[in-house]
Structure formats: structure tokens, C-alpha cells
Amino acid sequence: MDRLIYTSLTAMRGSMARQTAIANNLANAQTPGFRADMAESQTLWLNGSGVNARAVSSEEVIGADMRAGTISATGRDLDIAMQGDAMLVVQAPDGEEAYTRRGDLMVAPSGLLSTGDGHPVQGTQGPVTIPPADAITIDDEGRVFVVPVGGDPENPVQVDRLRLATPTGSNIVKGLDNLFRVKGGGILPDDPEAKVITRSIEGSNVAATSALVEMIEASKSWDSQLKLISDARDMDSATANLMQLPR
């Protein structure tokens, strides 16, 4: 009886992991450049004396869906969408280099150019710093221009160029902070040919309707496993009653 109970328990844990991944996807359905988490269930066979015929279920996030999201024009000077598979180089909270497709850029009070979630954007000269300016623009090559305070709008000054990296040929993984890194360490090579679409932004690639359907399926799976545990308890009680000696 314990085989059924523990098998169902592992399946319930898998359903919880799946629901967590789906919930994260739904929460980021409107996050620019977000890549959906992908969860997969697999069977794990137990080896050892008396358990060779026993298997449990394991479900975990195995990667990210790298399909592109929809690109929409915004008209905002600091919005960019990376073309192809190019990724914007940013600084992660731990100070290490990381990568993102999020292109809703903004200027922090310190003057640092950062993504909408606060990660400093990296340029060819380090973190991109914007001096006091009347206007800021980015061209399709990722070059950042400013019109100094009181300067001539017809003669903007280039302050830096955004670093755009290519993941082609590299194994990248997504962290809990939604940033991508090279698996096992290392950095991605810069792509000097990468282009951006200016005054536009790439949306999340999460299909909210499909994610809701997956959430319902995961919930039903949880209920089914819970019913199995309840049935196992009932069968165990019935078996115990049958084995009781008459008084």
C-alpha cells in the first residue's frame, strides 16, 4: 500500500512544481521580453533491494521557451527590441554579466541606463551612463546618443554603444531573476552585426490562454493523485477490518 501512497505523493509534488512554473509564466505574461519557463515530467526508477519495480514521478523546470514575442511600436525613444536571437548584456545583482531580451530601458536617478526591472545595461565602455541631457535616442545599431542640456538637437553626441551578444552555439540557462547566463560559467561573445528595432518593444511569449488551460490540467492532476491517496487509505482500512479476528 505504501507504494501507491508514495507514488501519488511524488506525482503531487510534480503537479506543484508544474503549477509554480505556470504561475510564474502567467505573472509575467505582460513582462517585456519574458521567456516562458518549460517544465517536464519524467519517471525515476528506484534501485535497491525490494524496490526495483517502483518508480516515482519527477517534474521540474528544464529550460525556457526561446520563441520570440510580438514586437509592438511604442514611439518611446528608450524602447528597443533585439532582432534575431541577439541578447542585451546587463549586470546581474551579483555583479556578474547576464543577458536579457527586455528592452524597456530607463535612466536611473544615478544616470545609469537600466532595464525596466533595474538591471544596469552594459556598453562597450562598461555600464552605460547618461549625462544630463535634453534628449536621448538609440539607433538601430545600438548606439546611444544624447543632446546635452542647451545643445543643438541637430548634433547629438554619442555616449556609448549597447553590447549585444549572441547565444548561438552556447548553452544558456534562465535564472530565478529571469536573466540568462552561460551554463557552467563564462560569457557570450558580442555580436557586432546585431541590430535593434528602435521605439519598439518585444512582449512576453507567454500565451495566457494556453497557460490557463495548463494550470487547470495541473490542478486536475493534483486532485486525481489526492483521490488515489484517499482510496489507498480506504483500502488499507478495509483490509485491516477483514484481518481482524472475531471476538
Provide the descriptors you would attach to this structure in a database record.
247 residues, three-stranded antiparallel β-sheet
Describe this structure in words.
With 247 residues, this protein is of the alpha+beta class. 25% of the residues lie in helices and 30% in strands. It has 2 helices and 18 strands. It has helices at 2-27, 208-243, and strands spanning 37-45, 55-64, 71-73, 80-82, 87-91, 97-100, 106-107, 113-114, 122-123, 126-127, 133-138, 143-148, 157-161, 164-165, 172-174, 180-182, 196-198, 200-202. A 3-stranded antiparallel beta sheet has the order 6-5-14, with no helix packed on it. The protein has a 3-stranded antiparallel beta sheet with strand order 11-12-13, with no helix packed on it. A hairpin with a 5-residue loop joins strand 15 (172-174) and strand 16 (180-182). Helix 1 packs antiparallel against helix 2 (208-243). The longest helix is centred in the last third of the chain and has 36 residues, at 208-243. The two termini are 27 Å apart. The mean pLDDT is 85.
